[in-house]
Amino acid sequence: MRRNRRLAFSASLFLFLVACAENAPQDTLEPQGEVARRIDQLINPVFIVAGLVFVLVEGLVLLAVFKFRSKPDSPEPEQIHGNTRLEVGWTLIPALILLAVAVPTIAVIFDLAEKPENPVNVTVIGHQFWWEYRYDDLGVVTANELRMPVGRPVFLTLNSDDVIHSYWIPALAGKTDVVPGRSNTMSFSADAPGEYLGQCTEFCGDSHANMRAKAIAMAPRDFDAWVAGQRAASVKAAAGTPAEEGALAFAQKGCGTCHTVEGVSEGIIGPNLTHFATRTTFAGSIFDNNDANLRKWLRDPQGEKPGNKMIIPGAPLTPDEITKLIAYLNTLR
Ligand code: CUA
To answer: Which of ligand 1's atoms lies nearest the C-alpha of 165?
Structure first.
């Protein structure tokens, strides 16, 4: 008995302490944009109301347990059936409390559903297991990282290519489901330049946990420069370099069947790689974009990220092929 109690205590203490992360980039309680802040401002008053109700109810339960508990020679308590005033009271009071909570909540929901003025429009497409971003007004297609200017909201139209996903960047906004055959929308903005991490938050298959999201907020001038770079024609590998051999391997191995590199291939199953080297991460943002990680990934994409759609035709790539492909990918700026 005592051992069980000690075990239960340690387990609760452990659970309590693991919540105290110092570096918690996906903390919902530290809003870094207007939309997240408006949602956060709802939490405090609702939490206070819920806290008071909790203390009151638990207090009464404890009072009943201790004051009125059965003692060896206590008489049979008085038997009551029905009390109209009590029953009306405990129906009306919670209804009024819920009403008080609902009014500001629903007002914020309607406000946040409005399309903001002068947004950057982005179509977001959920894939197993990565995010595609299409800036149709700007002629830009990218993957895994949502680039956005500070001081201007993004307006996202969310579609899915396969199953239900859910888009969530906790510091910037709430979750929105990404449903096949439906277009949901959301908008948000960031207060300051920086990277804001997120996560697919609807179970979508073996690598659901490997489907991360990242928003990169930039000064408006940097954002414009990024757009100009993404619109530029793809870079051709120089003759006689390892990158050129990599381009050849890219064609021979059939990479272009699934990946677009503008002017080279038109695959649409995997991410568009035209400006791959400008991205900070790849494969659903689980890897930083560097040679060591690319090598790991190209050696065994299924081992690194189970269930993803990257199947390399005809057995694994040789180390030599991988080296050349990495040289090629690094030129795609
Ligand atoms: Cu996509 Cu979970």
So the answer is: 1
